[in-house]
């Protein structure tokens, strides 16, 4: 039987939180900045009191998808802030507290959350329901080695909607019939998205349906829409990894042989390396930004958002349009 303390926390949660706080204080004392450290109960409130998000997704992409299953009526917090590199993200005291205070945490899996695994496991042991989306999504399907960006295939995301709805239903945060209707509507919008993206990409000639990117992040997109991945500039994940010059020379030769001069990059990041690489090809190449880990944000002036206006839906359609324009020669 799970034991709870007077504040409604499980004993395991209380012990883990105490361990985290003590560790933080030790660091602060060593640095001589005790007065500036804030590790008490005022960090986004106590768990299970309504002051914290009951539903957390590791990334902003999944937060948008999961919230959209409920028509946005169930808020979903993204653990990793917008603009941060998922691969290089380091768990803070506040992040660990957020995970402990959640009812359910949706992790991507497939290697994207590697740095978070110890924290996720501690959260699971304390009673938090940690859902591995990649494991649910792939099933018997073979994962693409080195590429955890499975959300780049909206067809696979559509397949997850019933499971996500079931997880949200268990929290009893909205009317069951309304949640079912929202989930069905969002699933339909994802099915329509796949068809619209297919239409947008259809004019791209077969010989041009080859993708080059900075990192392994377009494999699932390529698989869904009949493209291939010609190569990547850097096979190692994370913005802090270095690129092998010999590998770039080999990639340049492959691109020139195939007649491909476009490199796709993550929107919002610095792309000096990609721009230099394209310039060194000796042809009129181009660097094209795509939304991979950070979706475009809607403004308040855009009005109420329906399922077709979800950030994930709009970002994927924008990606298809940019790829089509770049490769339709």
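-> sequence recovered:
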């Amino acid at each position: 039987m799970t034991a709870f303390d007077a504040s409604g926390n499980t004993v395991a949660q209380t012990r883990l939180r105490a361990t985290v706080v003590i560790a933080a204080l030790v660091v602060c004392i060593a640095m001589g900045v005790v007065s500036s450290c804030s590790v008490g109960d005022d960090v986004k409130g106590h768990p299970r009191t309504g002051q914290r998000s009951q539903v957390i997704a590791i990334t902003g992409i999944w937060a948008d998808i999961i919230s959209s299953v409920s028509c946005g009526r169930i808020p979903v917090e993204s653990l990793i802030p917008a603009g941060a590199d998922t691969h290089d993200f380091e768990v803070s005291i506040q992040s660990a507290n957020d995970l402990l205070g959640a009812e359910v945490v949706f992790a991507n899996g497939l290697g994207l959350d590697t740095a978070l695994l110890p924290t996720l496991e501690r959260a699971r042991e304390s009673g938090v329901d940690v859902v591995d989306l990649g494991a649910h999504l792939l099933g018997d399907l073979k994962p693409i080695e080195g590429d955890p960006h499975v959300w780049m295939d909206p067809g696979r995301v559509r397949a997850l909607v019933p499971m996500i709805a079931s997880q949200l239903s268990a929290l009893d945060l909205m009317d069951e019939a309304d949640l079912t209707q929202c989930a069905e509507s969002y699933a339909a919008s994802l099915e329509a998205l796949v068809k619209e993206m297919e239409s947008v990409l259809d004019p791209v000639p077969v010989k041009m349906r080859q993708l080059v990117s900075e990192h392994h992040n377009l494999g699932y997109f390529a698989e869904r829409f009949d493209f291939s991945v010609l190569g990547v500039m850097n096979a190692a994940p994370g913005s802090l990894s270095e690129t092998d010059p010999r590998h770039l020379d080999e990639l340049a030769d492959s691109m020139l042989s195939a007649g491909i001069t476009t490199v796709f990059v993550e929107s919002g990041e610095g792309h000096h390396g990609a721009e230099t690489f394209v310039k060194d090809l000796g042809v009129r190449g181009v660097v094209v930004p795509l939304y991979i880990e950070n979706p475009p944000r809607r403004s308040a002036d855009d009005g109420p958002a329906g399922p077709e206006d979800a950030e994930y839906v709009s970002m994927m359609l924008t990606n298809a349009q940019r790829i089509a324009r770049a490769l339709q020669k």
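Confidence is low (pLDDT under 50) at residues 1-51, 300-309.
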